[in-house]
Specification:
The protein is mainly β and about 140 residues long. The protein is about 15% helix and about 40% strand. It is globular, with a radius of gyration of 16 Å. It starts with a strand and ends in a 14-residue tail after the last helix.
């Protein structure tokens, strides 16, 4: 079930490394201890996965001509059968970032709670000034 999706314009101050570092910061500084992947230290590698089968973060780099994109998926499978996916895709050629939050349920799911909030990850981009204004409207929380 799609819970949240947005496409945002980013400034040219955002590099691949900074993008990945901000996603890792979001995970490592989560106020929810159960969301943190213990010992996640990125060594600059692309096409790598951290965590275990129940809780992981994967970084993939895609190159096609002048287009360079980095996609990051964070997934958490909860004991109650909820499966959370957070996708962060940055297209550096277009200067656009797509963020999507979805939730699915395993066959034995026993909790169909539909509450969620926008990804806290956006706060880091706003605070560091990586998002472009929408016309005359500044991007704000």
């Amino acid at each position: 079930m799609l819970l949240y999706s947005t496409m945002l314009d980013v400034n040219d101050t955002l590099t691949k490394e900074k993008f990945i570092q901000l996603v890792i910061k979001w995970n490592q500084e989560s106020q929810y201890e159960e969301n943190v992947i213990p010992g996640l230290v990125w060594d600059g590698q692309m096409n790598v996965r951290y965590g275990d089968d129940q809780h992981w973060l994967e970084i993939e780099e895609y190159r096609n001509g002048n287009t360079v994109a980095v996609a990051i998926r964070y997934q958490k499978v909860e004991e109650n059968g909820r499966i959370w996916n957070s996708d962060y895709v940055m297209n550096f050629a277009a200067g656009k970032m797509h963020i999507q939050l979805d939730r699915s349920f395993a066959g034995d799911a026993n909790d169909l709670d539909q509450e969620f909030s926008t990804p806290h990850f956006l706060t880091f981009f706003i605070e560091e000034g990586h998002l472009q204004a929408d016309g005359d409207l500044p991007v704000a929380r």
